[in-house]
Each structure stands twice: as structure tokens, then as C-alpha cells.
Amino acid sequence: MTLKNRIEEYFEGFNENEIEKVKEDFNEFIELLDLGKIRSASKVNGKWVINEWVKKGILIGFRIGEVVDYSGNGNSFYDKDTYPVKKFNDATRRIVPGGTSLRKGSFIEEGVIVMPPSYVNVGAYVDTKTLLDSNVLVGSCAQVGKNCHISAGVQIGGVLEPVNSSPVIIEDNCFVGGNSGIYEGVLIRENAVISSGVVITASTPIYDIVNEEVITKNEFGVLEIPSNAVVVPGSRPIKTDFATLNNLSISTPIIVKYRDNSTNVKLSLEDALR
């Protein structure tokens, strides 16, 4: 029986006398997840596939874990023993000191830079040469591609349950501006630019003024931001009598253009930071 089969079987339930075997298999699972050899979502033939069994494995870790004391340096911390702080054995990543915490079971590729304080949760995947600026959260199972700039204060939502739900996926070469929020069920295709202060969920309509269309979530519940799209904060009026009387509007992300050479020049200025 494969590790995948065993994880799926444990997820349905196990006896107390099986707990040592469950822990043994979980330790194998978490090491593979920690090394990026398995992922909660992966791209197959151009399409993202949710690996439900990986999410099940993460949830099993919470189920079998015991709360232990991780305190040190005058600080008190208690968490499940199945999810200690992630450790590195070399200098191929730049993790700047000052309050950052990377949980075991997250994958941080070589060449990644993490500015403090930031947090990357279990199941997340951050690919090479991506910059996580200060106060960035990368939630459970979120996938961030190569050469991305995730600016200060960005919140990338996490999701574990239900196990078939789509995590946040940000493909290669994307820029996400400061204090933005990207949440469950959003797929940002490669080279997209998300301006500062944009908040996107799977239920957020995106108004593309270039192609004169409204982008909404697809039949799988995923909202897809097109490749090269430049998304900025906008608003649209609320048309009830009360809203009209009080000149009220609701915030709405707008695609104002698609990435061109001038956009690329502006974004290339960050290279010195790497």
C-alpha cells in the first residue's frame, strides 16, 4: 500500500493501537512535504490539480499531534509537536532575522528571500527567487511561483478544509502590491500585477475594462486572474435608493491594462533588493 493510500485510510479513522504506525507514516509524509516532493496542488498539463490526500495528511498531523513547549529566549510558545518551526542547513535562502516563522511542512525553495516578520504555514509552497516582504502571511497550502514579489503586508489566505477546496495559487513572475489580500479559490496567472490595496476572493467580480467583460469564478469555484493583467482598486455604484441618495459605492478590482514594457521596467527596479 502506498503512502497516499495509507494517509487516505488514516483520514477515515484509526485505532489507538495503530497510533505509532500512523505517526511513523506521518513523519515520512511531513518530510516529503517539507522538501517539496509532494504538494497540496500541482500543475499538470497546464491545469492546477488539488491533491486532496496531501491536505488529509496535514489534517492528520493536527489530529495526532500533542501540544509541547517550544519556549526559548524569554518567550513562551506552545504548539503541536507534529509542526515545529522549519529549519535550514545551508545559506541558499535568505531568511532575515526579526520575527519570521516558517512552519515545518512548508516548502521554501533555494533563492527565496523572506523579510521579517513573516509567516509561512504548513502545506505552502514558495518557489525560487521569490521575495516575501515584511508582514507577509502565506497561508496553509497556498502556492507561490518563481520570481514573484509579494510586497509588505500582503495576506495570502490558507485553506485546509474541505479537502477539495482550491488554495490560493500565484503563478510565476507575479507582483502583488502592499496590503493586498488574496484569498481562497483565487488563481493568479503568470506575469500578473496586483496593485496595492486590492482584495480578491473567489466571489469577487473582476471588471476587465480592456476586454469589456466581467470575470467571475468558474464551475470549479475558482476565480482566475488572466496572465499579464494589471489589477487596481476601483469602485462601482450601489443602485438602491438609499445608496444613491448617499452616493455610496462598493470596492471592485479592475483590470486597467495588460502588462507591457513600461510595467516591466518599473518592476525590474526591485532586482537590487535581491
Number of helices: 5
Helicity level: 10-25%
| Count of spatially separate domains | 2
- CATH homologous superfamily designation of the largest domain: Hexapeptide repeat proteins
CATH architectural label of the largest domain = 3 Solenoid
Q: Which spans of ≥5 residues are poorly predicted at pLDDT below 50?
A: none
Task: Name its key features.
single chain, 274 residues, alpha/beta, Tetrahydrodipicolinate-N-succinyltransferase, Chain A, domain 1, UDP N-Acetylglucosamine Acyltransferase, domain 1, 2 domains, ten-stranded mixed beta sheet, six-stranded parallel beta sheet, 26 strands, 28% strand
What does this structure look like?
With 274 residues, this protein is α/β, with parallel strands linked by helices. It folds into two domains: 65 residues, Orthogonal Bundle (Tetrahydrodipicolinate-N-succinyltransferase, Chain A, domain 1); 180 residues, UDP N-Acetylglucosamine Acyltransferase, domain 1 (3 Solenoid). The protein is 19% helix and 28% strand. It has a ten-stranded mixed β-sheet, with no helix packed on it. A six-stranded parallel β-sheet has the order 6-9-12-15-18-21, with no helix packed on it. Helix 1 crosses helix 3.
